[in-house]
Specification:
The protein starts with 20 loop residues before the first helix and ends with a strand. The N terminus is likely disordered. A hairpin with a 4-residue loop joins strand 5 and strand 6. It is mainly beta and 638 residues long. The strands form nine sheets. Strands 8, 9, 10, 11, 12 and 16 form a six-stranded mixed beta sheet that branches. Strands 31, 32, 33, 35 and 38 form a five-stranded mixed beta sheet that branches. The radius of gyration is 27 Å and the shape is globular. Helix content is 10%, strand content 39%. It binds (dicuprio-$l^{3}-sulfanyl)-sulfanyl-copper and dinuclear copper ion (CUA). Dinuclear copper ion (CUA) binds next to loops.
Length: 638
């Protein structure tokens, strides 16, 4: 399935002193002409790793970046990690790779009561889908710089997009994208600010999808969606030809673009989706789309009032640039000049010159005239990252390598000049998907570290049963040579991450008493005539009972309360502690109830008192020397 007949592959110039020994012994030389080996995806990375171990490099070429952060020292970067099909997001510190926090997003989390507390159920729109497949976390931007406000992430499995507030580091909004199935690619508008979050729906479905036409494959299509980042509502959707994969945006604010496979709609099975020699990059003209929506030039689909515009081939709203073959990742360079399309089933990347897109939409040039270079890197290019010094780093899934290449030299080589654009290939372990550089998806790419998110760890860690962790590798890119400095085991599955300098993120230390996260609970208290900060009160409303209590370590404001068997009980706890890091919990034994109440937070949980007699509740977050004593009794009268 992989085209490996790369007869005209650029050979390494062995006379060139600027090319390292490592590169000269290119893995390509082992593979050249050997199509048979290419099929053995699993074997390649492991098998050749030892052969490829690099000769000693001059120390001056290596960077000075470190992995070891001493006890008590703080990391320089936050990494926001997709938790893959665990449905969560994790915060790592870089370069230590220490896991700092987990943020439940689409999943239930008994530590924090996410999916259990009333406030989190409101975020989850009271869904019963406490599962998700999170892929692409990306932070909001202003003028192409991270602004530290939100991180957005998609759920492929339930076609949702979520927003995380970076002050409290909690998920605060989740929406289901209508009219589509399987939201995969997700990126933000970079300039002038993140007005829109762009989301690709991958799978084509019939419209209307009501069972009337499911065998008519000509009625199938999918759409590109723009979500208003503040209101978290879908602003518009664009019908496209083909299946959408990944997406990114430019640094003018005018364009977003998505990789698109099966663009001739030639089939819904594996063979069909891979049949084309060329698929497409679809460019979305945001201005033209907004104008079409404003002019009423749209339709709506049953069950939603989202404006849907037609962006199929030939439309003024989109342009389709042919690129080889089943392209996957799409990455905009930090200088804003190029976007790089990663060929996946082709050993190439295609670089498109963004400044030419205006002429393309004006009809002055042909789609392929936007190609600045299309060069071979190796087998299975999936994603590309940038260091801000003119170098690009592309993951080669099948070769199990990171390929470092020069953007400028690639353009010269494509123009016919005899120049070596590949700088180095570094073995990674094994089969990398995404990679990311520090600050690399913004104008502030600083070229310090590269993360390679490897899909397999195989033999790199102590075995833990048939299920292996994945392997996130930390690579120092601050020098001329990439140097692998850390292996980081990670759990199911690190689809993607983004790395932001700590100066950009300003997390809160305490909750604010008027935080919107618990505004519904505050409104309920107001109705009940309860002041959350002072009152310890039981309000009965038919068979609904609301129990308001405060908490100050190591005691709840109420150590007993009475209800009747069968009552629907809501316990609302307000944590009055003003001390950073003193979080309480509320756990009702034998009722599946446990929630987090951070300092100055109000949190609530609702359950049925379905067991008679004494039911103990206790604090399940360690808060005090007398934490074990922080408890009380619910008396359930028959
Ligand atoms: S895609 S391994 Cu879900 Cu991020 Cu490229
Ligand atoms: Cu409060 Cu433990």
């Amino acid at each position: 399935m992989i085209d490996s007949n790369n007869k005209d592959l650029p050979l390494i110039d062995t006379e060139d002193d600027t090319v390292s020994e490592h590169v000269k012994i290119s893995r390509r030389l082992f593979l050249s002409g050997s199509t048979a080996m290419v099929g053995a995806v699993g074997a390649i990375g492991a098998g050749l790793g030892s052969i490829m171990s690099s000769p000693a490099l001059a120390d001056s070429k290596k960077g000075a970046a470190v992995h070891n952060i001493k006890p008590g020292e703080l990391d320089e970067y936050y990494g926001f990690w997709s938790g893959g099909h665990s449905g969560e997001v994790r915060i790592l510190g870089l370069p230590s790779m220490r896991e700092l926090m987990r943020i439940p997003v689409f999943n239930i989390d008994s530590a924090t009561g996410y999916g259990i507390s009333n406030e989190s159920k409101e975020v989850l729109n009271h869904t019963t889908h406490l599962a998700g497949d999170s892929h692409h976390p990306h932070m909001s931007m202003t003028d192409g710089h991270y602004d530290g406000k939100y991180v957005f992430i998609n759920d492929k499995s339930n076609s949702r997009v979520a927003r995380i507030r970076c002050d409290i580091m909690k998920t605060d909004k989740i929406i289901t994208i209508p009219n589509v199935q399987a939201i995969h690619g997700l990126r933000v508008q970079k300039v002038p600010h993140t007005k829109y979050v762009f989301a690709n729906a991958e799978f084509v479905i019939p419209h209307p999808n009501d069972g009337s036409n499911m065998f008519d494959e000509s009625a199938y299509y999918t759409m590109f969606s723009a979500i208003d980042a503040e209101s978290m509502t879908v602003a518009w959707q664009v019908i496209v030809d083909g299946n959408l994969d990944n997406t990114d945006a430019d640094y003018t604010g005018k364009y977003a673009f998505s990789t698109c496979y099966n663009s001739k709609d030639e089939g819904l099975d594996l063979a069909g989706t891979m049949r084309n020699e060329r698929d497409h990059l679809v460019i979305f003209n945001i201005e033209n789309i907004e104008a079409a929506v404003a002019a009423g030039d749209f339709q709506t689909l049953p069950g939603s009032d989202v404006p849907v515009v037609n962006g199929r081939k030939g439309s003024k709203l989109t342009a389709y640039v042919p690129v080889p073959k089943s392209p996957h990742g799409i990455n905009t360079a930090p200088d804003g000049k190029y976007c790089v399309v990663n060929g996946k089933l082709s050993p190439t990347v295609s670089m498109l010159e963004i400044a030419k897109f205006d002429d393309l939409f004006a009809g002055k040039i042909e789609p392929r005239d936007t190609i600045a270079a299309e060069v071979e890197l190796g087998l299975g290019p999936l994603h590309t990252a940038f260091d801000g010094r003119g170098n690009a780093y592309t993951t080669l899934f099948i070769d199990s390598q990171i390929c470092k290449w020069s953007v400028e030299k690639a353009i010269r080589a494509y123009a016919g000049e005899d120049v070596q654009y590949i700088q180095q290939k570094l073995d990674v372990h094994y089969q990398p998907g995404h990679n990311h550089t520090t600050m690399g998806e913004t104008r502030d790419a600083d070229g310090k570290y590269l993360i390679s998110l490897c899909k397999f760890s195989k033999d790199r860690f102590l075995p833990v049963g048939p299920l292996h962790p994945e392997n996130d590798q930390l690579i120092d890119i601050s020098g001329d040579e990439m140097v692998l400095i850390h292996d980081g085991p990670t759990y199911a599955e690190p689809h993607d991450c983004m790395i932001v300098h700590r100066s950009k993120v300003k997390p809160a230390k305490l909750w604010s008493r008027d935080d919107p996260y618990f505004s519904s609970t505050r409104a309920m208290a107001k109705k009940d005539g309860v002041t959350l900060e002072t009152d310890n009160k039981v309000i009965r409303d038919g068979n609904k009972v609301r129990v308001y209590m405060t908490s100050v370590a190591p005691a709840y404001g109420m150590d007993k309360f009475n209800v009747k068997l069968g009552d629907e009980v809501t316990v609302i706890v307000t944590n009055l502690d003003m001390v950073e890091d003193v979080t309480h919990g509320f756990c009702m034994v034998n009722h599946g109830v446990q929630i987090e109440i951070g300092p100055q937070q109000t949190a609530s949980v609702t359950f049925i008192a379905d067991k008679p007699g004494v039911q103990w509740y206790y604090c399940n977050w360690f808060c005090h020397a007398l934490h074990m004593e922080m408890r009380g009794r619910m008396f359930v009268e028959v």
